[in-house]
Known about the structure:
heterodimer, A: about 100 residues, alpha+beta, Multidrug-efflux Transporter Regulator, Chain: A, Domain 2, two-stranded antiparallel sheet, 4 helices, about 55% helix, B: about 325 residues, Helix Hairpins, HSP40/DNAj peptide-binding domain, 3 domains, 11 helices, 11 strands, about 25% strand
Amino acid sequence: MEIRLSESIWLDENGVCTIEHLAQVSGLSLDELRGLVESGVIEPTDPSAQPPSFYLQAITTAQTARRLRDDFELERGGLALALTLLKRIRALEDELQRRG
Amino acid sequence: MKYKDYYQILGLERGASEADIKKAYRKLAHQYHPDISKDPKGEEKFKEVAEAYATLKDPEKRAEYDRLGRHPAGEEFAPPPEWQSHFGSGASFDDVDLADILAAFGRSAGARGGRQQAESFAMPGQDYEVRTQVTVEQVYHGGEVDVHLDLPEYDAHGLMHRVPRTFRINIPKGAASGQRLRLPGKGGPGFNGGPPGDLYVSIEIAPHSLYRVSGRDLYLDLPLAPWEAVLGAQVQIPTPGGTVELKIHPGTTAGRKLRLGGRGLPVQRGAAGDLFAVVRIDVPNVTSARERELFEQLAAASAFNPRRHLTENG
Lengths: 100, 314
């Protein structure tokens, strides 16, 4: 059985990337990503920094956005709303789990 | 090659209109989409639904699919002779997935009658995602896991075959459930010089025989004998970092959570989680005559009434 020890990148808060990298990896356009940043779905590491940088875990959110856009044919407003609601649902689920 | 009944997957009749196809897909996507569904089989079902929709919504692919006729789902069928001429003599369809071959027709859409044109069209490889389970111990200490999946490769005829692959990845100490790893360029191959896709590995913490995981905290059921709960005791309990001695105070009740700070799962930044030992009081199944006698003496001597609040309120 072939085993490849692979170069791998953890998508967490230990690394940062540019918005262009987010676009390249997720398949969203720069405009779509800027829309998600404006609506607070994807947050830059420092809101005042220009150009903005993002934790690598934002790739996960950007990919979810691309999947929802493609699979449900969502336009930008609907996409931002769906992602905001998903974020809230996850926060509530975490809270519920903590309270056991 | 195995036949898949895309109409059946979407719950449609053969003659369904484009609008019907879209409607059926939307309904099932809302139900099973892995980003919004809690159904444990959602991801698998959505893949089938998305595959069926990708074929049926595209008139060219649908026509190609319909030409196969009707077969029971899962039945092996011989590909039509046109496919052989399309992909060149010697092309083997044995282990080709129906979706992959219909996608190949999609790639050459607009280039009918001329393979040259299709082949000059560079396409990036697809991203793939796979989930893998890691143990509580691997999260605690860090470790390696092997991730297995079938990835496509193109043969000389441009046909996609799924080939089993294994990747060994390092799990850092403190990896969290849901955390994702990107393996650049390890996804599907690009077509005609397009770049390869990426592989994403999503980490899940496997259920453990002793610990329940809640975020960074661990919960462990701690059974006590009735006399240990009443009199107090020193008990040894397992933690991922090794056995720990825990003092049980006299009068410890069932359901009490005894917190062992910092004995839960580590995090990559900040303080580790806690381990909570949740007290349960077990009674012996079989009692000797002597034990029974002692319990009877206890029953006679004790004024303890655990149901006082029931009678007082009733």
